[in-house]
Amino acid sequence: MQYNRFKVQPLTPAVGAEILDVDVKSIDDDTLADVMTAFAEFGVIFFRDQELTEDQHIAFAERIGTININRFFSRVDGYPMIAEVLKEATDKRNIGSSWHSDHSYDKQPAMGSILYAKQIPPIGGDTLFASMNQAYENLSDGLKRTLHGLRAIHSSAQAFSADVLEGDEEAQRKFHNPGLATQETSHPMIITHPLSGRKSLFVNPDFTVRIDGWSKQESAPLLNYLYKYSVQPAFSCRFRWQKNSIAFWDNRAVWHSALNDYHGYRRLMHRITLNGCDLTN
After folding, report:
1. Distances in whole angstroms, Cα of residue 76 to Cα of each of 67, 91, 118, 218, 250
2. What is the rounded distance in angstroms from the CA atom of residue 212 to the CA atom of residue 62?
3. Position 177 in a domain
4. Edge-to-edge strand list for the sheet holding 208-211
5. Is residue 281 part of a domain?
6. Number of folded domains that form the chain
7. CA-to-CA distance for 50 and 22, rounded, in angstroms?
């Protein structure tokens, strides 16, 4: 694609691009349309030097879609639409360190997530992204044919249930409402992306429980192969955060993983998640 309203700087051949010379507070309709084209092309797009209030963060998100209020994350005071992604300097673990796709357990998985950096460590705390389009395209023809006939079960209980959080004071401080972790749904393991039309692998380690119609034991070898295969460097990019940076990723096209390599420092991010649609293969 050619972009005339802004400059695009791809991070890798597989996934991710920085969008230059755009202020999301004052973006016009034509530029926003081009931004969404880049979103579909690159899977995750990044903006630097965006000074946003909470209201402006919400306003940008609502230009794109409807906001999903997270059931489990802490929320920013006075702004329930914004989830707080926080690691205190004394915490041992961060949020989102294992590879995942946000809200894949919903019947209509999240379209995208808009993460805004409020406070970052002096070094570390990067986020990795992996393209599930590239993962699909590089599968063997035989495995593609097999996966096209399969669906997978995704569950919120695997990450947010009372059984998972029991006895973990740090997790209980960050995650709430374990009684609401009742979402379980089936999605095709290969989807047709609703924006780009490309085929994409749609499972992830955090929320996929098993292959539909298979036991967990039967599912594990194939799922574990896909999890390891999908995060190879050729399919991935790494984003180094600065204060006031934004990452806007497509949960139907990429996985992400937040690195936990900044012990002793505070990292605060604000996240808005956007509702998606039914997925088809």
Report:
1. 14, 19, 12, 41, 23
2. 34
3. yes
4. 184-188, 151-155, 208-211
5. no
6. 1
7. 9
Assess contact for 118 and 86: CB atoms under 8 A.
no
As given in the structure block, the two tokens for residue 247 are 């990452």
Residue 55 lies in a domain: yes
238 is an active site residue: no
DSSP state of 254: E
48 has catalytic annotation: no
Q: Which domain holds residue 203?
A: 7-274
Does residue 148 carry a catalytic annotation? no
**The two three-digit tokens of residue 13, written as one number:** 């051949």
Instruction: State pLDDT tens for residues 176-216.
Output: 999 999 999 999 999 999 999 999 999 999 999 999 999 99
Among 151, 187, 193, 271, which one carries the catalytic annotation?
271
Rg (CA), the chain: 18
Positive or negative, the CA dihedral 49, 42, 267, 114 is: positive
Residue 205 within any structural domain of the chain: yes
Of the listed 57, 71, 103, 256, which one is catalytic?
256
Mind listing the pLDDT tens digit for each residue in 150-167?
999 999 999 999 999 998
Closest CA to 111 of 238, 230, 275: 275
CA angle 107, 111, 115 (to 5 degrees): 125
Active site residue 212: no
CATH assignment of the domain containing 92: 3.60.130.10
Active-site annotation holder among 57, 71, 100, 193: 100
